[in-house]
Hints:
single chain, two-stranded antiparallel sheet
Amino acid sequence: MSAPAAPRDAAQSVIARSEITGIVLAGGQGRRMGGVDKGLVDLEGKALAERVIARLAPQVGTVIVNANQNAGRYAAFGYPVVPDAVGGFAGPLAGLHAGMTQAHSAYVATAPCDSPFLPDDLVARLAAALVDADAQLAVAKTFDQPHPVFALVRRDTLAHLTDFLAAGGRKIDLWYASLRHVEVPFDDEADAFRNINTREELRDNAPAAS
């Protein structure tokens, strides 16, 4: 299910910023980066997670960082840090669950810690599409590629997610498929969704950092 792109100035006229909590997903093990905590890797003088927070925070009411290591270093960015409630580095759904459990807003917006160039109108366009489609979840898409870790989710889906995880579910696309969801085209900003998984990608993206 796809929705037309919303105007950039749709910003928070559809859903108030105060009703959205941003969740930065930094709970992984960074295997492809050599086993380091990827969110804390430096890119042109700033940690990757710090760059993501700087882009996401203006779009939402507040931010929560999901991290399973180095909580003190993440807390230094100025926002609450919550670990997964599900053990074993269970993936982005566990991070979403942790953030949703702590959030007090009606919606949460997710972004991964390794995508420091995310669009500055990400949440606005997801919100416009979610409301227009009367969906429970809106997910970004570029051309034929969905980006499931860039999503806006109604927080009242938390019980459903909790049950999904308790039953052993881990695949983010399977959980999304069980909800009323809408895919939101960002073809005009495809480069904004590039992520940094390896040392080579870190080197190649350094000149583009801002």
